[in-house]
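tool_log.txt
---
The assistant was asked to compare two proteins side by side. It first ran the structure predictor on the initial sequence, then on the second. Raw inputs and outputs are pasted verbatim so the downstream comparison step can read them without reformatting.
(1)
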Amino acid sequence: MDYLNHITAPVSKRSLVDSLYERLLELILQGRLPSGAELNEVALARQLGVSRTPMHEALVWLAADGLIERKGGRSQVTQLTPQAVAEIYDVRKLLEATAAERAAIRMDAARLKELRAAVQELAAMEGHPDWPARAIEFDIRFHDAIAGASGSERLHAEIGRCRLLVRAFCRITGDNRNLHESVKEHMKILRALELHNPDGAREAMGAHVDARASAVLQHVYGGGATASPASPASPASAGRSAERKGGRKRTRRTEPAAGA
């Protein structure tokens, strides 16, 4: 198992299973855990400096998301195609565009003022060495605030789960250029929220998710499949993706993804 030699740094304890899930997904996307590679729980846990229990749970989550196959106690990396990544972003687009539309009606003035102040503070830090980290922090707060203002706890939770899945994609494409583009897209969404424009907020969020999907597909696959047009994803496409994943159900801590 030569691929284990690529895994060196220990995983942080911030949310162990989430961290392991993200780390393994990132290694799969980078090809460092190649398609067809057999994953040994004990060896992986030892390499990453964790116990077997959280490693087992992270592998279960990856299997539920169709990223690995588990057969008879053995785990094997599946092939993550550009089409599969595009479908993941289609589902995210449907969820977050709906949340933005609902938030445009429900988000209160205090929260809007808080988000506007955070955007202005971020703009004032332009060129500072800490700017990328602050941009990612804002991204987390921004998307979570919109999901929280949707008025639906279920929608909020599903968005958190979906953003955990795309977190590794975001880390891979989180260079300064992509972060700047993402912030500009956030500002368009925020303006629609401030105007209490549901259609505008939905459209701006859909365009934002499409742009992030394109960045991931270009970086990882050099293009490949493309996400849906800038209008929000259709329920039919999301339904097909969910059906492909077998209508699974699981519980996990749902921290928002970074740099998305």
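(2)
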Amino acid sequence: MKEKISFFLSRQLLSIVLLIIFFIVSSLNDALWLSSIDEVLFVTGVFILIYIILIKVIPLFNRNLAGMEILAFLLLFIILLLPKLHSNIYEVSNGKIKLSYLLGLFGFLFLIVIYQLNFKPKTSFTKLKNYIITVLALFILIEICIIPSIFKDRNLLKTEILNFEKNKFDAQFKLTKKPNIYHIIFDAYTGFDGLDRYWQFRDTSFLNYLRTEKISFAYNAKTCNDNTLESITSLFNLKSFNNETKFRSLATKSHVYRKLIQKALVIETLMENGYTISNLSIFDIHDKKRYWDFPWLDPNISFPQYCFNQSLIGNLYKNYQSRNIANNNLLIISDLKQKVQVKKTSPLFTYAHLIMPHTPNNFDKDGNYIGNISNDKDAYIGELQYCNKIMIELIEMVKKDDPSAILILQSDHGSGMIPSNYDMEVSNILSLVVAPDSLQLEWPDSMINQNTYKHVFNALGQYAIPITSCQD
């Protein structure tokens, strides 16, 4: 038995093979095995190619083979598994341990191995290699053992999605009035009540403007969800997707909720009533592709893309992409203004999603670029005030160039930057509407985002769609 174990442990690059197996199996578990066989085979083929290259290249260095294997293992671990390790530690440490800290630690270990290989070539790495192999084999076994429960979650999720789709309102909403509708989301804008209570901040000039112009706004508007994916799903489906499935990764959750948003009831209803759809958002809606890829919601959903996004290279690429947030926000605002001013031959529905005042913040209160500032309350309030100025510009433009239109200015959730009152603050949202008096559009002070288009459809089609609470 010992000889068989020794033979097994002595296999060349065994630690690399086990690391690759663990990465693929754990990624499939994270993705709830929703990927196609072709996608999984492609990823497996890429790793087989990497293994073959390492088999050929490592002996060329004329160094301790076990030590070179440890070096290659550390490099692949940093690239493939370090972000996974960090995501788990990040939650436990309440965000105190950054990825850069772990990167520095494992980078230091990587340098130690290089030093040993070059200056202490007789160092034995066998025990370390055997320890790594044992730990990896244990973790692979754990991942394999939980596959049945993962499949159970996957099947439950599919059932929940089917029930959600089936239980959409049976009524076909026929709209007798068809004004242009502009719906702009200001991501992570805490509502007026939340700003007052938990930030001790009130933009008096903006509130006075809204009151002077007789703009309907919900001071105590709420969302039933604390994140973008769930909130936008509720908004455009008139109800929350209350699922019991536990997602092991944000990318998998994004995969599911993006499809629910794409086929949302509100979008389908508007299209059936002759509306043209203009998409200036981070989501696909019906057959209209998203305006741009917001990197932190993992818009790419194939298994190869999923694996790339979860890697260190993928995380660095997301950081690079996030530098374009400020520019994309400005482009969306510019395109939105053009949509308002252009003449329409059919009713138009425009959905724009601005990643502001969501952190990192890029603009001061006057719209001057200030770089990327994360988790800074003063920077958040400054950009929020700039958002208020943008809203005033849009309101004035719609009243002038498209006075019969509906303009909805809303947020998906609050900032989430007040830990002591997280639930109350993050659930309080911006919600205001500009609409002609003739529509008699109701906009209650305690508006819940999933009721937004119930009020709109009630006004446009003379319906009496029931208004629901978060508990319904």
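---
observation on (2): The chain has a mean pLDDT of 90. The chain has two domains: 2-145, 172-461.
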